[in-house]
Specification:
Elements (H helix, E strand, L loop, with lengths): L8 H8 L4 E7 L3 H7 L9 H26 L10 E6 L2 E7 L5 H20 L1
Antiparallel strand pairs: 1-3, 2-3
Helix pairs in contact: 3-4
Length: about 120
């Protein structure tokens, strides 16, 4: 890895500026049992299609629902889109830098809408 040896005054100031960040986590309950129950005798793994759909579909649902919540609320500035911060097995962890503490409610609403949509889609 290449680490910077020196930082400019502006970079130091940016690093030292406090920020409020929200983390949102979703995972597949019972994924190990699901994985083993979906293995066929031929050795194919149809659960891979499900996991791939989850990894690609849930972030799309979340982005769409953040947009929906944005449109439903008269905000002076746009909500930043949460990004996939880390994937741990069947868990997806999203992060977003909060521009205003009151935005937490809006992100949680969008996340809940995404969970309901995901359950309806994959359950």
């Amino acid at each position: 890895m290449n680490f910077k040896q020196t930082l400019s005054d502006g970079e130091v100031e940016t690093l030292l500026t406090p920020h409020l960040r929200l983390f949102l986590s979703v995972d597949v309950v019972g994924s190990t049992a699901f994985k083993h129950s979906k293995q066929t005798e031929e050795g194919t793994k149809p659960w891979l299609q499900f996991i791939h759909g989850f990894y690609t579909g849930f972030p799309e649902m979340l982005a769409r629902n953040v947009g929906k919540v944005q449109n439903q609320n008269a905000l002076e500035s746009q909500l930043a889109q949460p990004y996939l911060w880390k994937a741990l097995g069947d868990e997806l962890i999203f992060s977003v830098l909060l521009r205003h503490p009151l935005h937490v409610r809006l992100y949680l609403k969008a996340f809940r809408l995404s969970l309901v949509e995901a359950i309806g889609h994959w359950a």
